[in-house]
Amino acid sequence: MSPDQIQQFFRNDRFAEHVGIELLDVGPGRARARLEIEDRHLNAVGVAHGAAIFSLADLVFAVASNSHGSVALGVNVSVSFLKSAGRGPLVAKAEEVSINPKLATYLIRVTDASEHLIALFQGTVYRKKDPLADHLPSGAEG
Prior knowledge:
Distance between the termini: 10 Å
Strand content: over 45%
Mean pLDDT: 93
Order of helices and strands: HHEEHEEEE
Number of helices: 3
Structural class: alpha+beta
CATH class: Alpha Beta
Number of domains: 1
Strand order of the largest sheet: 1-2-4-5-6-3
Helix content: 10-25%
Low-confidence stretches: none
Number of strands: 6
CATH architecture: Roll
Largest sheet: 6 strands, antiparallel
């Protein structure tokens, strides 16, 4: 699948859409997305909720790991929150650090508008043999 097809496929991620995540860029083993932190994304003490940051990182993890055209499913993730974030844009960038026929590992960096590191997310996927194209919605093959 081409990067455009991968991007189109992940437009069907209803949770990411609900949260407000915008997928910016896709390539083999990499992805970049943005989330504008608004009032609805804040926790009780007024900073970006960990779940909002995690969701942003998790989307680019999913996109990067599925970018090779076969279904990849997360088997383990960890996240370290390094700095709090308030309202404003956050960007997550996923980078593939290891890949073999069955497993792949990704490092995701989440930064704010000043490029301060907000969170580090590391995830490993199990790479199935199923082609991702088999999971496209009807009429989305082209």
